[in-house]
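dumping the sequnces here before i forget
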Amino acid sequence: AQKKSLQYANRGMTLEEDLNETNLYYRQIGRAVIHKKPTPVQVVQVDYPKRSAAKITEAYFKQPSTTDFNGVYRGKYIDFEAKETKNKTSFPFGNIHAHQAEHMKNVQEHGGLSFLIIRFSQFEETYLYDASHFLQWYFEQSERKSIPKREIEKAGHFIPTTFRPRLDYLSILDQFYLSM
Amino acid sequence: AQKKSLQYANRGMTLEEDLNETNLYYRQIGRAVIHKKPTPVQVVQVDYPKRSAAKITEAYFKQPSTTDFNGVYRGKYIDFEAKETKNKTSFPFGNIHAHQAEHMKNVQEHGGLSFLIIRFSQFEETYLYDASHFLQWYFEQSERKSIPKREIEKAGHFIPTTFRPRLDYLSILDQFYLSM
Ligand SMILES: [Mg+2]
Ligand SMILES: [Mg+2]
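..and the predicted 3d for all of it:
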């Protein structure tokens, strides 16, 4: 896929922050309704102080059973996982859990658009990478547990970092998924 | 809409529990991929004890900006809010926030299916009620802040409580939304 020079430096924002800003912008201009799902938390203990908000005093992070973001665009169900890596030559997928991969597979089977947005932070390069490619590596290359960067450059789509929206991934979908 | 006698008593399960079981069943049989979104929590303080899981020691519940459930069915984006009321004659919509109502409106505008699943717990009656009906009451009847039960019976669709799935709301969508 084509790679353009960065017009706007990323100025230290995380991929998740860039995507939250992008999605907020998309909602503001009425282009799509896509949100980050809340981080799942197992609440164990809650205090109810008088005249103030309930305070959670014991809770634990739970493993998410789905992906980071979902919503609707041009009538289509959109679902994706966002991952950053500091690795320079490959994307390690070891911290994507089997039930998350299963979820991506199921979404595709039900007619949703499922993909990953992967950032190589050392290069400030961000790619949209289809779940079907990812799943092939995930389920068939269980020993390696990573995908070479050159494969993601080739089969994925480079997302330029721009001013507004920060990461215009919907234009990639327009061009490669929804132009039929 | 037609109302059938309950074949299976609800045995004290909350509407959310019934819907979680229903969605789990739908996923198991490969019918749809629909999940409850995690409750949003603002994490303030986290302890990292040696050799054990990170423990959240101060956090607060946040107001959700979207609805309870979303996912994909037959290629369509599905999005709904579930609400129970003990009220016998009307559904009070006061605790649905304006940004949640806006979200429903936006989902419909982008081609998603948006609705509420409303249970009158005193009668163990559950209805699927389209967001467009709800939004009319919500934005036009700001003084009343409730919808008469007879309106929900008439414009909504009764969902029988059954053994498996507990609340087969996708069959309602098949019949009234997706049969064209
Ligand atoms: Mg992520
Ligand atoms: Mg609810």
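Residues 15-37+65-176 of chain B form a domain with the Trna Endonuclease; Chain: A, domain 1 fold (CATH 3.40.1350.10).
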